[in-house]
Design brief:
- This protein has 154 residues and is mostly helical.
- Helix content is 60%, strand content 6%.
- It has a two-stranded antiparallel sheet.
- Helix 1 runs antiparallel to helix 2 (60-83) and helix 2 (60-83) packs across helix 4.
């Protein structure tokens, strides 16, 4: 038998007490910040490689620099996610990527899978990124694939 009194709605599960899921706007600004930071790094490497190529009258320097830029671009996001949970852009916006299961730091493997998830998220008309608007926990496909979630830093 019910008493007919008011009951509070069930609490939505959150990342942890005192933490908030990272929103789309903050995540977008963080990503743009990371792209700008990496663009500056890549431009400096490209200038150095071009100067080396002209000085040595060969294309070897440019090829080496392009290889370094490619490796750096593949390592940038996973390195920061696995070591500190945040890229420089995410730190600027007060965000951190953690394991979805328990809020702990992500592994190197999860970081690489999350990067692959970035490519998948963008490959299908960017639906994987738009999914952040749909998911209650603000997870994109890359988060779902890697088992991660983005939270505001405490």
């Amino acid at each position: 038998m019910t008493t007919g009194g008011w009951q509070a709605p069930e609490r939505e599960p959150g990342p942890a007490p005192g933490l908030v899921f990272g929103g789309f706007g903050a995540r977008l600004v963080a990503y743009i910040g990371d792209i700008i930071i990496f663009g500056v790094i890549a431009t400096i490497l490209l200038i150095i490689g071009t100067l080396v190529a002209f000085a040595s009258a060969g294309v070897g320097g440019v090829l080496i620099v392009f290889t370094l830029i490619a490796i750096a671009s593949l390592a940038y996001f996973p390195y920061f996610w696995a070591t500190s949970g945040s890229t420089p852009g995410m730190r600027m916006m007060g965000l951190k990527v953690v394991r979805d299961s328990d809020g702990g730091p992500i592994t190197s493997g999860q970081a690489v899978i999350r990067l692959i998830g970035y490519w998948v998220s963008g490959a299908v008309f960017y639906l994987g990124y738009i999914w952040i608007f749909i998911d209650k926990r603000h997870r994109g496909w890359h988060d779902l694939i890697a088992g991660t979630v983005v939270v505001q830093r405490a």
